[in-house]
Amino acid sequence: MSGIGSAPAPSLWRSFRLQARIIAALMIREGNAKYGHENLGFFWIMIEPLSLAAMVALMWYATNHSHTEAVGLVLFVLTGYCPLTLWRHVTGRSARVIRQRSALLFHANIKPFDVLIAVFCLETIGIFAAFVCAYVPLVVFGVIDPPRDTLLLIGGWLFLAWFSIGIGLILAALTEIFETVEKFIPPLLYITLPLTGVFSMIDWLPQKAQNILVYSPVATSVEMFRAGAFPEDIVTYYDPAFLTIVCSILTAIGIPLVVYAQKYITHN
Fold first, then answer.
1. Rg of the chain's alpha carbons, rounded to an integer?
2. Cα 243 from Cα 240, distance rounded (Å)
3. What is the dihedral of CA 79, 226, 131, 155, to 10 degrees?
4. pTM of this prediction?
5. N or C, which terminus of the chain has less Cβ within 10 Å?
6. Chain-centre distance of CA 77, in angstroms?
């Protein structure tokens, strides 16, 4: 017979639902803190990444490029700038993100990992919403064609998000342990811009550059993303197995590092 007053251990499903509610609440809080309640509020997360893409497209229209070239450029810019924004926002915002929200850790059910996932998921979902909100009207008005393979497009986005989050977890932990790491993140993001593959398809580059970029998880994720949107005759390079292995390794490194970094937060 069970002891009086003993509570049953929570099931795995109940624990998962609890953590999902916590992360959802943290995402709402993060959105309010970042974008506020006034003016555009949450809609700004969708409008912000589109501004540059719209400006570039308008400039190309204004310089008398043919309609076919402009339409191609609109899709190319949109499928490049949104992934670049995801990569830069997730990795760029990872610096000391736990310490900045350390007050939340006084709640028993909130862990550093929950805070990080909430921040990263807000960026991932918000920027993808920006992409969809731009893509759908362009398809409706006949400016661009519908995606060739929606699942491939979503798969490329999820791989890019997974890789970015894996790097973000590692950077978030390292910036808590070593303060100087934070100063190196912005220049590293600029230095690695050519490796993102957003400015050109891999197939358009010289062979030596192709040999390098096929091993860039960001570039191959972007290629997979674009493969879902571009016509079938556009050559793309991506390997889901390679991306899965790299992202799994980064996640396996990042999660223990975040747990280890927690003591540097509570002791300060």
1. 21
2. 5
3. -140
4. 0.84
5. N
6. 17
Q: How far apart are CA 174 and CA 251, in angstroms?
A: 14
Q: Which residue has the higher pLDDT, 61 or 209?
A: 209
Q: What's the pLDDT tens digit per position in 162-205?
A: 999 999 999 999 998 988 998 999 999 999 999 999 888 999 89
Reading the block at residue 70, the tokens are 């402009």
The answer to whether 130 touches 48, Cβ cutoff 8 Å, is: yes
Neighbours of 186 (CB within 10 A): 13
Determine if residue 238 is left, alpha or beta; phi over 0 gives left, psi from -120 to 50 gives alpha, anything else beta: beta
- Residue 6: both structure tokens together: 């003993």
Would you kindly state where each structural domain of the chain is located, as residue ranges? 15-266
d(Cα 37, Cα 44) in Å, to the nearest integer?
11
Instruction: State the Cα–Cα distance between residues 115 and 22, nearest whole angstrom.
Output: 9
Using the structure block, give the residue that is written with the tokens 């006949």: 142
Residues ≥6 apart with Cβ < 8 Å to 220: 197, 202, 213, 214, 237, 238, 239, 242, 243
- Mean per-residue pLDDT over the chain, rounded: 82
Contact 265, 173 (CB under 8 A): no
